[in-house]
């Protein structure tokens, strides 16, 4: 996608789920790792956090996952 749109555009990826999350009604989902590895600049995470029994813990799991994916991307 980046090659098609250039460096000046942002890539926003919706439907982000952790590997253990159900896809729900999403036709396509991606993990933070796969979306970031594919070049996403922004991730859209909604229901996996808002419907979680512990939204704070769910958000922290996403933050950790995103940080790990960004660290891997920076390694090239």
Description:
There is one protein chain. The protein has 76 residues and is mainly alpha-helical. It contains four helices and two strands. The chain has helices at 2-5, 32-37, 47-50, 55-75, and strands at residues 12-13, 42-43. Strands 1-2 form a two-stranded parallel sheet. Strand 1 (12-13), helix 2 (32-37) and strand 2 form a beta-alpha-beta unit. The longest helix is centred in the last third of the chain and has 21 residues, at 55-75. The chain is globular, with a radius of gyration of 13 Å. The two termini are 18 Å apart. The model has no long low-confidence stretch (mean pLDDT 92).
In short:
The protein is mostly helical and 76 residues long. It has four helices and two strands.
